[in-house]
Amino acid sequence: MQYPTKLSLILLLVFCSLTSFGQECNGSLGEAMINLDFDRGQPLFGPSIGNATTYEFVSAEPKDGEYTIAKNTIGMYPDNGWHQISNHTPNDPNGYMMIVNSSINPGIVFQKTLSPLCAGTTYVFEAWVVNLINYPGIRPNLNFQIETKTGQILKVYNSGEIPDSQVPEWLRFATTFTVGNETDLVLKIINLGVGGIGNDLAFDDISIRACGPIITQKIDSLEGLNEDLCEGESASYRLEASVSADFYANPRYQWQSNTGAGWNDIVGERSMVFTAVFNNARAGTYQYRLLTADESNINSPSCRVSSSVFTIRVNGEAIAENSGPVCVGGTIQLSARNAASYSWTGPNFSSQDQNPILLNASKDMSGDYILTVTTNGCTTSDTTTVSVLDQVKALTDITDATICEGDSLRLSASGGISYEWIPSDGLSNPKSPNPTVSPKENTVYRVLVSNGACFDYADINITVIKTPIVNAGIDIKILEGQSTRLNGKVTGDYERIYWTPTDHLDDPSSLNPTATPPTSIRYTLTAVPRLGCKIASDEVFIKVSPNIIIPNSFSPNGDGINDMWVVPDTYASSQSFIKIVNRNGQMVFQSNGSFKPWDGKFHGRDLPSAVYYYSVYLSDEFETFSGWINLIR
What we know:
The protein is built from one helix and 54 strands.
């Protein structure tokens, strides 16, 4: 057996022990002109109420002369005699209250300027207060004071000492007051006691409402406030609200209705009798009330009062629904809207539950289920049809396929009435049983096959042979007689590669063969993918230049043999530049453009036998040649 927690027990005692003190309104009440419940929110502590009090605000356990706005006092002085309670507002766990740890000196605990009220109108004030102390100590003693802005006191009501108790008790303090010609008023709650040991309290649900005459009510000349009608029926009801005489000098009346969106005036209905007419009534709750006030105040919400609410309930017809269609082996949920009694019948089935559940559905559970409900004397029926469907088996024509990049393939699925392929990338129509697919990458396509309630899925794995990416490398320059390695690279799917032409290559099937061409040549690298997919190729050009041989000696002695220093293969170059210097760096010969042989002279005079140094630039195709020359005489 489970027992309520200590806190739950305390709160239960709090709301079962509410006591009321003060002067009550014997007549009808109006809407609350002030309804201060200190708001609500998710945090434990609420916002400050500003200058409405002389106390200092804290978002914590208050000390002497401080107050807080909080949902409850849980954890506040639990070992020093404070009751652990929640706010007073019913059914509002997130609501706040004002918690006061009284000051050493008496003073104003709460003060609020009221919205303008109505001259000559009587109002009832009420506030709920709890003494937080559970031991004998200084007891709170409050004055509830209504005064004008100019300081004229209209009413002072004293609570007397609010007793301490072992069980926390919210007490209701109420009084009435009548407004004179000055309608701008101020509410003050003054603590007459001193702080110290005791005099700690909490406030909540402070309100002011107009107080009016006694109103007695009848429906069709019979006492009562409620009637019931069945949906689709027609009826009329005579609503009477008798207002005690001599309360207002010039009484006026106004009927209002509320169908769920708030109260609205019924145009032209200004007597104490109203007839509510229903033709082919629609389900719902229809409310009516009579407002009354003095003639000059009937249109002012702060001045008028209202009768108790008349309620006409139009009880709706039965509405039967089910969670289907469902698959064989699934669960069927029947459902009905709220009524007083329920009766279900169906294929080999009956139930008195509102929302019965049928487990492990089979085909013989398919069919019509009839619901009969009774509410407030209204009995109606409705039918819902349950469909139990066979399980689905997703079928595809293939499970795996390989295609070339850029090609497409038609997929095929069967077994249901609707299809959904995922992912949708590369699909012509993801909701077709036979879409065309052209993926860019290897992809697993899943098809969800359904018959409206049941589903199954199957996968098709598509492998994409990527078109190879071929790079034969950058163009190359070599000298006649030299060799070079080709730098081929291939990425993607391929079975083999080859170079063309094969001339002067040591291995045409290698990515990096050695080439020794005697003349300039262009080689093509080709990659061949699997399954005959699209081949790819790239070219590289090898520029073969003549092999330049530079002599390192000559003898310009006039014997006709080796009399000139000549660099072969340079005569055709129009870009050549040749410079010769002695060992001191002094230039002794220079040739620009077409090559001119050197005869060993400088300015027409023979140079002595010695070693000289040359630099030869032929074109951008060659590096600059440099070396020495031995001039022999």
